[in-house]
Every structure is written in C-alpha cells, then in structure tokens.
Amino acid sequence: MRIAIASDLHFGYDWNGKRQEDSFEAAMGVVEKASKADVLILAGDIFDMKVPKQEVFARAIKIFREMKIRKSEARIVEVRKRDPDRKPNPLAMTGFPIIAIYGTHERRTKGSVNPVELLEEAGYLICLHGDVAIVEKNGERVAVHGISGVPEIYAREVFRELRPKPLEGMKNILMFHQSVKGFVYMDDDNPTLTLEDLPKGFDLIVDGHIHWANETRIGNTLFLIPGSTTTTQVRKTEAAIPKYIYFYDTETGKLEKEKLESVRKAFYIEMDASGKTGKEIKEAVISAITKKLEEVKDAGKPPLIRVVVTGVVNENIKAMGLEEVVRMFENQAIVTIAKKLITKDEIQKREKFLDAIKDSESVESIFVKIMEKKLRDSKLPIEFIELVEILGEGKLEEAERLIKSMKVDNELKDSKKSNHETNEDDSDSLSTEDSVDNNENDTNNKIKSEKSGKLSGTLADFMKSP
Ligand SMILES: [Mn+2]
Questions:
Q1: What is the whole-number distance in angstroms between the Cα of residue 417 and the centre of ligand 1?
Q2: Fewer CB under 10 Å: which end of the chain, C or N?
C-alpha cells in the first residue's frame, strides 16, 4: 500500500491578505500527488484556526471533495474509537481514504467541536485521537493510529495514558502533533516528549507541528516530520527546506518525497549592518533584495523575503525608511524586514551591567552591610555586628560561641563614643569602603582575627581606650 503523508496545511492562513490562496493552492498540489497513492494521512493543523470562517471551511471542503472522488483500491474497513459513542460517519469510510488528526491550531476545549472533527461529521475524513483506523487493499491491512495535538506540558502524560500499541499482523503507523526534545517548533515550546517516550513497535511515526521536513530512524521505526505544505512565518531553518508530500510504501518500508512545486518560495536574508549609517543600511537592504530577485527570476509567485538586519551601529537609527523599501518591492515580492541593531552605547551599558552583576556582592553580604549600619546607628554592642557577619557567612558554630561569650556591658554600649580614639592606621583593615571610617577598623580587625583564630574576649576587651 502506498500512503501519502502531508501535514500543517493551515487553511485560511493570511485570509484576506496577499497570501490568502497559498494554503489552498499547496493543498491542491497535495491532492494531485496523493491521488497516485492509496491513502492520504494528514498530521494536524489542517486549518489555521480553531473556528475558521465559513468561507475558509467551504474552500477546505472543496479540496477534500476533490480528494474524496479520486480513485483508490484501498478502503477504511474498521475504525476503533476509544469512546464508543463517537462512531465515525460511515460516509467518511467511503471514497478515497483520508485519515487525520487535529493539531495545535484546531484544538478546542472539551465539549466543543473542532474543524477536523467537523470534517469527520461531514464524512470527508476520519479524525483520530487515541483511536485506530484500519485500511485494507487487496488483502493487505495497515493500521493508522493517531494522537491529536495536546498542550506540550501534558504530551508525555497523554502518551503514557493512551499507550498506542501496534496491531498484530499488519504494518502500523502512528501520527501525532507535538514538539519532541531535539525537534522543537517554537523556542518556548518546552516539549515534555522525548524520542524515548515514543511507543515502540511502529513501522512509521509521523509528527506534524514542526514546519520543516526531517526524517530520521529510531531503531526499526522511521520517524518522519513531513513539515508544512505552506510557509506561515518565515524562519531561517524553514526557508532553507522545500515543502514536500511524502509517500510510504508499506511493502518495501521505503519513504519517498516529492516537492510541492507551486509553493511560494521563501528566503531569509541575514545582513550584518555593523558600522553602517541608516542610509547605507537602506541601500544594502535594497541591493540584497534586488540580488535575490534576480537569482529567482522564475520563482512563479512573488517570493517571501524576510530580511533581518543585525549588527552594531554608532547611533540609534530610528528612521531608515525601511517601510519604503517594503513598498518599493510590493509587486515583486512580499518583503518583511526586522531590525536587530544595537548601538555602541547600548553595548557599553550592557557590558557595565554584566560587570556589575559579576562583581556584585551576594545578597548575604549586602544584608550584612545593612545590618552593620543599622546596628551601629542603634548603638547596640558591637558583637551584634560581628554576629551578623558571622551568620552571613553561615558559620553557625562560631556565632554560637560569640553569643555565649557576649557580655553586654552597659558602660560600653555606646560604641561610637568608646571607639573614638582607636588606632587610625590599620593596614589590615578588611574594608576599603568609603563609608567605613576609622573607628570601625578595630571592629574589622577583630572580625578578621576571629576568622583566622579563636574568638575571644568581648567588646570590652577589644575597645579599650588607650
Ligand atoms: Mn502548524
């Protein structure tokens, strides 16, 4: 059996925009190519939104109808739903077999109907979530298992709960729609699933969601990310990889792919504008776009060009007239320009900030300083100051000894007064802070001596007037 595989059609993307037709045109390419196969499976994000406009829905139905009337010798012979109340529409088991899951863009809260489920109700496809559809052609059976898109945080749990198991005596395909560690769509996706979490024993595992194609092998299982059929946001990785439809031959176990030729080309240009002025940047952007357009003269539809301007500039350039550049190419390309410029000033500020963090004191040491100041102002015995510092260093035993040795002498409570005539020239002073005046040197000296040796004496011993 030959299984056609596509994902992330995103019907209705940029509806009413310049790229309104892109998702549907790409899907027609899928229909044409898939009609040479026996079955079509779709790994989620068929629609770009949970509640598509009826106009979008009508367009989608036209495409599915077109697929449905293509000839196939394969038939969906059985659908095993987890929930026995969710019996599939028998119409969905007739015509060209289409089996799908829903993705992140279609997922809705419990009790609501999402657009892929609606297509099943209408009889165009079978929608799986923890379910299995069995397809048969000339006596050969293939099981297609599906887990629709769930929030990344629950993915691992859902996989453990549903625990898809390959069926005996046939080839088994599993479809899902998540990021997997090492295969992440958005930087903030935070997948809970790892390749090791994927169930064993499947011949092919198909993962939607990620918009650029990738094929790998996990043991005896082929792991396929078909990628999207249309470009939504222009990303660097995605722009470099063509859009495909895949074919899996269940007899040979081989995977093939065909480019979807009608797809609008996408280009990602990164430009270092370091040291340039606003005017020079604008000129450089124009020349880069012009060059790209010459390279792809026969691209068909106006290509998508995303220019990302990076680098260090001398001043904060606000108005570069880049909007004008976008308009300038409006008939030849769909241009977007992103500025990621930084000025020398900003870099200096950033470096200063980083240095400040690097050299900054710990919270404990700041706390100790504040406490020292407060204690001094409150004229409490100086041991308290030591105590705070010792505690700040986490030396509990030492602190305990100090507390035990403390004799609060009323006479000496006024540390400022008694300190007044102490040694002014103490080169061993720990502190070099401006705020620390001479009469604290003794304290510091004492603290130091405590650190290096045994704690002995009290404030009275140490603060004796000469
Ligand atoms: Mn998607």
A1: 75
A2: C
